[in-house]
Amino acid sequence: MRKGRVPFIITFLAPPLLLYVVFVLSPFVQGIQISFTNWTGFTPNFDYVGFQNYTALIGDSAWWHAVTNNLKLLIVIPIVTLALALAFATLLTRGGTGGTQHGLAGQRLYRVVYFFPQVIPVVIVAIMFQFIYSTQSGLLQQTLDFIGIDLLELIPNGPLGNRDFILWAIVIAAVWSTVGFYMVLFIAGMQQIPREFFEAAAIDGAGRVRMFFHLTLPLLWGHVQVSLVHIGVGALDMFALMSVMARNGVSADYGGDVMATQLYRTAFALNSQFGYASAMATMLLGFSVLLAVLTFRITRRERLEY
């Protein structure tokens, strides 16, 4: 039986590995290769220019503006999203007195409501929030009118027309659309923690806050670590939301530029500079890998067994 196990395993692993190499690794390698050329993307000829595209990036103010926006997203989105997800998950699993009760009444309904945005396509979320932020009878405008506040006085040109506010308006949409996914992930982790731990902590006089930070969070740290990497890589992308919500044809669009939208515009709008855009994509790939490595190193701690 052991003798035929290796060929059996290889038989099942070979097709997916082949597909991964052809459709994932191969495009990465080709993209890195193109980043060292001056290819326009539409001609069969190109010249290798060495590190010229990368040195040009160093002096590209538009690129560094996009990088700065991504760094802002990288700080705000994980903190806000994971904090809300942890809060919701805790309320729906340990919502009783002292935190020992298994969930609140109607918790299944709450889970569906909170998770529902996750099943909506990102483009639909972007279009929906465009209507919400609209200064012409948008939901936000109508709500503020009801309490006697003018949206245009509060935010000149509206949330998506204000260069200083557009990035944060899109952050709200991003958090709303993703918090349900991480809530469900944390609920799954919390349900694996034995109830006796919480009962013992409650008997010892631990309150909800202390119980969360000294019991729930340490035992849930593996889930938090993976979530940080996942949402961090997502914050370095943000292409779908930005390409829809920050493309209104006004000067405020510049305030919503990120690396993904900048490289897309470079490849398909600015004289089809595929070589230069590939250098941007390679830098984005490097940032993503570096983020994952640093996150796992910084958040690494001894695994708690229970």
How would you summarize the topology of this molecule?
Layout: H1 5-34, H2 52-58, H3 61-93, H4 107-115, H5 122-133, H6 139-146, H7 151-154, H8 166-190, H9 195-203, H10 208-219, H11 221-235, H12 239-245, H13 259-268, H14 274-298
Describe this structure in words.
Helix 5 crosses helix 8. The protein has a single domain, classed as MetI-like (MetI-like fold). By secondary structure, it is an all-alpha fold. The longest helix has 33 residues.
Tell me what portion of residues adopts beta-strand conformation.
under 5%
Helix content: 55-70%
Distance between the termini: 35 Å
Major sheet description: none
Number of domains: 1
Please name the fourth-level CATH homologous superfamily.
MetI-like
- CATH structural class: Mainly Alpha
How many individual helices? Answer: 14
The oligomerization state is single chain
Order of helices and strands: HHHHHHHHHHHHHH
Instruction: Report the uncertain regions.
Output: none
| CATH topology title | MetI-like fold
Beta strands, count: 0
The computed structural class is: mainly alpha
State the CATH architecture.
Answer: Orthogonal Bundle
Name the average pLDDT.
Answer: 87
Label the overall shape.
Answer: globular
Cα gyration radius (Å): 24 Å
Observed structural traits:
306 residues; mainly alpha; MetI-like fold
Short précis:
The protein has about 300 residues and is mainly alpha-helical. It has helices spanning about 5-35, 50-60, 60-95, 105-115, 120-135, 140-145, 150-155, 165-190, 195-205, 210-220, 220-235, 240-245, 260-270, 275-300.
